[in-house]
Each structure stands twice: as structure tokens, then as C-alpha cells.
Sequence to fold (499 residues):
Amino acid sequence: MQRLRQVTRLRKVALLLVATLYCACATNPVTGERQVTFMSTEREVALGRQESAKVASQIGLVEMPRLTDYVSVLGARLANHSPRRDVEYRFAVADMAEPNAFALPGGWIYVSRGLLAITGSEDELAGVVGHEIGHVAARHSATRETRQIGVGLLTLLGVAAAGAAGGASAAESVAQLGQVAGAGLIATYGRDQERQADQVGQEIAARAGYDPAGIADFLATLDRDSVLRAGGKRRSGSFFDSHPVTDERVRDTTARAQRLTPANLSPIARDRNSFYSRLDGLLVGADPSQGVFQGELFLHPTFGFSLRFPAGWRTQNGHSAVVGISAKQDRAITLEGGPVVSDPGDAARAFARQAGVVLEDGKRTKIGGLPAYRAVARAQGRNGTNLLHLTWIAHRKATFLITGISGARASAAELRELGSAAASFRPLSRRQRGSIMEQRLRIVEARAGESLAALEQRTGNSWSVAETAVANGLSESVRLRPGQRVKIVRAKVYVPSSR
Fold:
């Protein structure tokens, strides 16, 4: 009898599980097959809206209406041919210098300004955007196991350094106290999902009137750009590289394009020259309004200060914080701004209340001629105590918080290095202001038979011949046609906006 009761209970559990799985099944818009998913469309949209706010605040969006409106119109045209229609697709240009494109759950799709700078045609851009629509259409974010990486800042590197300094608890402290801010979340996909997005994207592009070989052309350019950035060496695959090998994707997408017939529709940009004109004025490289690195020296022209990180540290500037990591990854320094206060001690006390920490050895001082307050806090975790070396500086435009992160056993020399970095905060000199440059993409016309080297010299192109060739889909030895439009980059001294 006891055995019978156990079997009956197991059957009930099994039936409940089957019923739960059945309720969690949904028809995939791409394959038409039923599949198990535990994320509803409503949940997808809510998650996408939440993460899109992070992208806007932590990565930033390009404000260039002529270009961003064009991307939105192109995206909407492609989305009209998506096999998935239960979400509203939204398109934007992310303020990222690196070539990238990504989709958030629920239909938020981004291309980076770095990607646009090397894109050669509307067909290529349609292929990239179609690929990202393919991820959304196939519900890849809902069906895969969630795996996300930080972008913009060295978020993972910062947490890793804190962990190295004091174990897992240091990493927890970094995350909880907000000293290493995330810069939005971008999903990574499995190789099969990338292949499926290629297929769906090419089909969407063809139905919208675009050459389905555009994605293959762009991938070839992206491969050239990647090799150039890596110093001429082809990057080998890595554990974190979710994309199939570029050669394989170029081969597969080229073969598929031959089997697809584009619809007879006129493009939005009538030709390559018209497409190029929409890119004119695009910022290339680091955004000086967010500050720039010159070696270990960080310069911020908008706020008018500099900060020197220790020599040999790995640094990166993000939209909401600046991060430095020691060579041994056992210490970190972060810089971030907050509301203006007249007394930096008030900012320190507010921080302590919000973070739930006790400030020790607090003292008032002056740094760079400005009122400052320095203190130490201890963050207790599973593996010991971690030290936060905190410095608040009251600037007329913001209150800056410089945080040094170390383990409790850091040497005196290592602690002095953290202190020296915070104490290096200084107003920008006139020479430093004049050294901060901005680079803008410009479109110029070539002369008959002109080489890229001659064009570079004549037009003041800041790109090398190799960079110009990649961005324009040309060979380095090409002889240009008269009137042929070419993308170049011009640099000039950055002048902060009066806004």
C-alpha cells in the first residue's frame, strides 16, 4: 500500500510537470515549432525596456538626427518583413567606438557608431540589422541559457580584480557599492543561434529589397578590421567568442545569398554616395566629451581636470565611470561623478548611509586646490576584509568620488600607490586642453588615378592607408576614380560644448 501511494504521488508530480512544460511551450515564429520557454512576450518586453535604459545611461546614444532617423527608417522597413510581429522593434545608434551590433529582448536593436564607420552600403547595413532582428524573431534571448557580458567599462575585469584582492567578497563589495558600474548588458548567443540569425536576417533583407549578400560583404570588412586592430594577426577563437569563424560565415552567407532573390524595391539611400553622405560628421574613436586617456593620464575637458593612474595599469573609460586595474589584478581604482555639494564631508556621510559602511580615519584636506575628504571603509565578505580607500573632491560642476580597492593585506607601497592616484587630481593646463582631439568622419572626392596615400596627404586624413582601405572596402593599392567618394577622418582640437 505504501509503495502504491508513492507511485501515485510520483504520477501526480509527473503530470504536474508535464502540464507546466506544456503551458511554458510557445510556437517559435521562425521555425514554426513548439518549444519550451519560461519567458513570456510580456516579460521579454519588460526586460528589454529595463536594459535599454541601461544602454542609454551607461553606454550612451548618438545624437545625430540625420543618421539616427535613417537607421530607424531602415530598421522599420526590415522589421515589416520579420516573421515575428508581436513586439515593437526599436532602433538606435549606440555611442560605442568599436564595431558592434546587438539586440535586447523584446525588440530593442542597436548598431554602434564604430560599426557604421566601416559599413560600405545600405545593403551591408540592412544585413547587419536584419541579423539582429533575426535574434529577436527567433526568441534567442528567451530560449537560451542566460549569459551576459558587460560592455563599455571593464566591469568583469574590475570585479575580477576585486576578487583577486580579497576573494569573492571583494567582488561582491564592488558590485554592491556601485564602484564598478555596468555599461548595459549585451547577450551572447550560441553558434547555431548566430547561424540561424544570419539565415533569417538574409531572408528579411531580401524581402525588403536588399542584396542578401550585404551581410557577407560586411563580415569580410569586419574580418579585415579585426585583423588590422590586432596588429595584422588573425584572432584565434576563444572561450568567450560565441560567433562562428568569420570565414565560415562569409562562405555560408555568400552561398545562401545566391539562392535568394531581392524584392524589386528602391533603397532609402539611392546609391553609395547617398549612403556615405549620411555618415558625414560621425564621431570616430574615443568621445572626448567623456574624457580621454593619454597613457596613464586621464583628461576630462568638460569638467576640466586630470587624474593620473599608476603606471602599467590597465585602464578604460566608460560612460558612467573610469576604471583602472593593477597589472597583478589585485587592486583597482574607479572614478565617478555625483551631484554638486559644497562640503565633500556631506557626500561622504551620505555615501556611508547608503552603502551601509562605517568610515574610518576621515579627514578634510585639499586636492588640486579643491575641498576634499578622505576615509577608509571595510567591506566584510565570506573570505575576509576588503579595504575601500575613498576620496571625495568638491568640484564646481560635480562631486567626484575616487575609490581605491585593495585587500586587507596590501603592502604600504601598494597603498601609497592608491593614495597617490587620488591625490593627482588637478585642473587641466592650457597645454593639456590643446592636446585633446576629436575625430570626425568626412566624405571627400578623389582625383583621377589618386592613391590612398596621396589622398591622405591632400585631405589631412588621420586614418592610415590601411584603415582607409578597410573602411571603404578598397585594396590598399587601389587607384581611385575621378569624383569617387571616400570616407576619411579629420582631427581637430576638441572644444567642449557650452551646454
Remarks:
- Residues 2-23 form the longest helix (22 residues).
